[in-house]
Design a protein that fits this description.
Blueprint (H helix, E strand, L loop, with lengths): L1 H10 L3 H21 L2 H10 L13 H14 L3 H11 L6 H14 L3 H14 L6 H14 L3 H14 L3 H20 L3
Amino acid sequence: MRATAAFRTLIGMGDESRGRAHGLVGVCVALALCLGAAGTLGWFASVAPASPVAEPAPETGAAGALSRAREQLAAGEPAVAISTLEGLGAVELVEDYRLLLLARAQAAAGDPEAVVATSDAFVREHAHSPLRGAMGRVRGDAQAELGVEARARTAWADAARRTRDEDERAELLALQARSYERERARPD
């Protein structure tokens, strides 16, 4: 019993001393293994504190659903991401982000009409969102897929004005130029 109390006192020290205590635990475990004292090892396991590098708790609620949807989209599962995001419903503080993820998932699923509807809701409800440029890119791509070149260029131009990334701005300007070229190449 004295050993248990002494060990608990040792591990109850401040953060600086706790590192030394964990080092001592490692030495004691190694010694117990060398001596073949399986009972000693079991004792250490019963009184040792949890590892200081514990796994983070899984996110729950809206944050967890948004993280799962982002992972599902990255894993090439847009239908699952759409289901997750639609099941979540409106979330006040991050609704603009939820709608952006939903539009990206709808685009990945090949549903440009749904992307346009989602982006319409985004613009109506979150006109001053810092994510508006990112939504403009998704909206422009969907409009171009639908063959509505003028609206695609408007969305890309808005996205280009809102980004600070020079490479992205150049890409958005190139998309606009290719849109003009497609429009001119169409027979009247």
